[in-house]
Amino acid sequence: MDVLEDFLHKAQICTRLDSDHQSQKLLDLLTLRPQKNTFMVRLYNVGYINETQLRLAIENRQLDYLMLSKEMHHKPRLSFVAATLLKIFNSIRSQLGAEDTSEAIKKSAMLFISGKLCQTYFQLSNPLLCQNVFSNMNNAKLSFGTYHPNQQLQYRYYLAKFYIAKYEFVDAHGHLHWCLTHLPDNYFVDHSNVTKLLREYLPVCILLGRRPNFANLSRKFYSAPLKCPNFFAIYADLANAIVSGNFSRLHDLLNNVHYASILKSNKFISSFCSKAFLITLRNLVKSIWIAQGKKMRLEYDVVRQGLSISLNDLELTSVSTIDSSPRRGLEAFPPLDDYAVENCLITLIDQNLLRGKVFPRLRVVSLAKSGVFPDICATYILKFGNGAEGLLNSADKWIGKV
Q1: Is the pLDDT of residue 270 over 50?
Q2: Which partner from 6, 191, 232, 250 sits 20 to 30 angstroms from 259, CA to CA?
Q3: Where is 222: in which H helix or E strand?
Q4: Contact partners, residue 1, CB within 8 Å, separation at least 6
Q5: Shortest CA distance to 217 belongs to which of 264, 208, 265, 206?
Q6: Which residues form a coiled coil (predicted)?
Q7: Half-sphere CA count of 286, side-chain side, radius 13 A
């Protein structure tokens, strides 16, 4: 069938020629004389080709053409704008350091152009292209504090979105928190830009193990409850499920059509599916420990019972699965065994979310005398951050310059 696909490809090329050459090329393609058209001999050797095979080959060609067309001509105007902005950005960047009379003017335009360029890259669904912009800005020897507050806000907002695209939530949280604490006075009530910030800030907080104060944020930034965007309720429900260690509730929310559509549109569905499980597990085990009177030991049977209640006939491996049918019947899946319990405990210890030591033969986990459950966000900052909370990534140090 490769010969047939080659033939259709050649025929498609002929149809794109001008009228003077199109007819002759098609005739050459269809001629049966081997001396002039060796390709026809290959096609003849294929043998009988039925209508279904031909239709399938044509459909595949059409699909390939549509995908190529979409790739090449996806948002052509935005692509043109991005290319133009990039040329301007590179031109100004290359002239910095000349110490001429226009140096100050060129520097003053850099942050504005970089923000608009990053905005265009995100609209083109190519956020990683911002890496070049941020790298050049870091090496340009600029003073971030000298720029207009709105430009600073825009730059750090897209820098945060860039870190979110790379799943670097600690750095993203630092920039988003700065944006929310440095808002101009006219941004405080019912402002669309604040809504954009909160759309990123709320899920990042949850994925770092923090529960945002939704009520305070709503009162501070919106004039009435009806003005509050609908994603507030969605993230509040997800936060409640995670904080309470409710696996069943978390799974139901992730598989809810409305909730899933919001998470997908905000580009957070995969993050919650991959990272919410561990935080929920930690909170569940902590709840079990508190319910047991904060003893120095936790027995496997107690942990298993807590897991079973939280799962509510849900298979452990299917908690964060989308569009699955994981509810266990009476005979569908075996009950949780010691290996499953042990794996959960070791995972928490390995991720520094639980301080203790597992004793499989005794079927218990011996807990530390203090700090049994380290703070989730502090653990992530220590593991993935830049030292103390609020410190910038080495690539963003220039932002701290005034």
Answers
A1: yes
A2: 191
A3: none
A4: 46, 53, 57
A5: 206
A6: none
A7: 22
